[in-house]
């Protein structure tokens, strides 16, 4: 049977095709929306780019790894979507500025910025070098600011925009061996909340997504069974999500469904931050 029955109330019975609940079924929630996804070459950014393209978005994939970005574009195009890759270091205002200008030339606008690029460099505070601290802050926090500032003049002109930045449970709880990362991701939350208040007058919303997912970034935890057991024991749902499990929340935040949401932190973390 290809349909399911949804009982809305006694009088109304709605039949919906099961196909429409398939994750990768093309729908139109992001028709004519141009999305820039930083860190879109891998992990959560990649899954978000693919999911948003399946909803009709034109997706600009920015990543330090140009080959990975090109692969994502090929995947999107093979599924009938529209995307283009830029090899971009998001810590460079020059590179981000020229990529954003080229995106506007390519697609006519930048409606949504998903800032997913991020790195970790684990060390205990007593051993952490200043260089490691500054590098992690540069990519995770300063890079968020650089990308936001690059799209801002465009948003102030068009009087609309959606800023979505990736934060972490570390931002709210701290992280043993990740003081640099936790500090940077807490800064991202503060930046998002500031943007929500400052930019509301231009029709711009700003929200943070707080995930946990089995990606390359979290691979070290999964390689060590003891560490993984401890990690999962702190998650009420006791399991990992995939990057594809996180992607629908990016679609939601990028779509008009979330228009009245700003300054929020949306946790898709199995309950880790309760
Ligand atoms: N995976 C998790 O459990 C988890 C948890 C909390 C927060 N996050 C956050 O979600 C985001 C995505 O994480 P992920 O797990 O997909 O990571 P990932 O390591 O799989 O992917 C990160 C991507 O960012 C790119 N990148 C790194 N530095 C860059 C730079 N300077 N310029 C451009 N691109 C750069 C990498 O090439 C890579 O494609 C990150 O901001 C991360 O901090 C992830």
UniProtKB/TrEMBL annotation:
SMART domains: PKS_KR. It comes from the Bacteria. It comes from Modestobacter versicolor. One of its GO terms (biological process) is fatty acid elongation. Residues 33-215 form the Ketoreductase domain. The keyword Oxidoreductase applies. Keywords: Oxidoreductase. One of its GO terms (molecular function) is oxidoreductase activity, acting on the CH-OH group of donors, NAD or NADP as acceptor. InterPro entries: KR_dom, NAD(P)-bd_dom_sf, Sc_DH/Rdtase_CS, SDR_fam. Belongs to the short-chain dehydrogenases/reductases (SDR) family. This is 3-oxoacyl-ACP reductase. The keyword Oxidoreductase applies.
């Amino acid at each position: 049977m290809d349909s399911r029955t949804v009982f809305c109330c006694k009088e109304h019975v709605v039949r919906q095709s099961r196909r429409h609940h398939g994750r990768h079924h093309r729908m139109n929630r992001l028709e004519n929306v141009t999305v820039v996804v930083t860190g879109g070459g891998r992990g959560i950014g990649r899954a978000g780019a693919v999911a948003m393209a399946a909803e009709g978005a034109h997706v600009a994939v920015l990543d330090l790894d140009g080959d990975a970005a090109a692969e994502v574009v090929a995947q999107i195009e093979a599924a009938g979507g529209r995307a283009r890759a830029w090899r971009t270091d998001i810590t460079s205002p020059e590179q981000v500025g020229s990529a954003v200008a080229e995106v506007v030339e390519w697609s006519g606008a930048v409606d949504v910025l998903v800032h997913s690029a991020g790195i970790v460099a684990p060390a205990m505070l007593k051993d952490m070098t200043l260089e490691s601290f500054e590098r992690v802050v540069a990519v995770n926090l300063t890079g968020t600011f650089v990308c936001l500032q690059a799209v801002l003049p465009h948003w102030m002109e068009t009087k609309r925009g959606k800023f979505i930045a990736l934060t972490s449970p570390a931002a709210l709880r701290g992280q043993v061996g990740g003081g640099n990362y936790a500090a940077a991701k807490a800064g991202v939350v503060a930046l998002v909340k500031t943007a929500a208040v400052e930019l509301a007058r231009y029709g711009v919303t700003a929200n943070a997504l707080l995930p946990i997912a089995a990606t390359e970034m979290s691979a070290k935890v999964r390689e060590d069974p003891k560490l993984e057991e401890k990690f999962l024991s702190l998650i009420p749902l006791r399991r990992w999500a995939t990057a594809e499990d996180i992607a629908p929340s990016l679609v939601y935040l990028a779509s008009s469904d979330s228009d009245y949401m700003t300054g929020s932190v949306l946790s898709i973390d199995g309950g880790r931050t309760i």
